[in-house]
Design a protein that fits this description.
Strand content: 15-25%
Number of helices: 5
Largest sheet: 5 strands, mixed
Helix content: 25-40%
Radius of gyration: 14 Å
Structural class: alpha/beta
Number of strands: 5
Strand order of the largest sheet: 2-1-3-4-5
Order of helices and strands: HEEHEHEHEH
Shape: globular
Length: 152
């Protein structure tokens, strides 16, 4: 796509829509995620709890790319929620998985609220040299499948 900002909004919008597929949970957010190559081709997509109650969206999308997958230059992860930086259900956080895969960019809509953990994914990714883009204009849509957790 010629307009990178428009492409980011459209691809992140797709991730936000994927979050609506999540089975509801009282102990975890509903999140959608995509992995996209430098040309804008979607390589994988997933959502929270897609096949296991402990699955995170970014984790599922990266796993769909195969064991040991390493990002080509320019790869981007789009996530409706800031990638997790603390987790009790699995040994690696989504932030750690993104860094291990060598992803160059992460675009997300909604900063993780402190409901379950103190989210620091964006800061940790930036500190590791990943370009992080927050599109807060899509945050309200990302919150919608989580309204039951947020008192609304």
């Amino acid at each position: 796509m010629a307009d990178p900002e428009r492409a980011d909004r459209e691809l992140l919008g797709r991730a936000v829509e994927l979050a609506r597929r999540c089975p509801p949970s009282e102990t975890a957010f509903s999140v959608g995620a995509l992995v996209v190559d430098a040309a804008g081709t979607v390589l994988a997509e997933s959502w929270s709890r897609r096949s296991d109650p402990h699955d995170h969206a970014e984790e599922g999308a990266l796993a769909d790319l195969g064991p040991g997958w390493r990002a080509a230059p320019g790869a981007t992860v789009y996530s409706s929620l800031e990638p997790c930086s603390a987790r009790s259900s699995r040994p690696l956080t989504c932030t750690e998985l993104i860094l291990a895969a060598g992803v160059d960019r992460v675009v997300f809509a909604w900063r993780e609220p402190g409901l379950f953990v103190d989210g620091r994914g964006a800061e940790l990714l930036r500190a590791a040299g990943v370009e992080v883009v927050e599109l807060p204009e899509l945050a309200a849509a990302a919150r919608m499948p989580n309204a039951h957790l947020l008192g609304g």
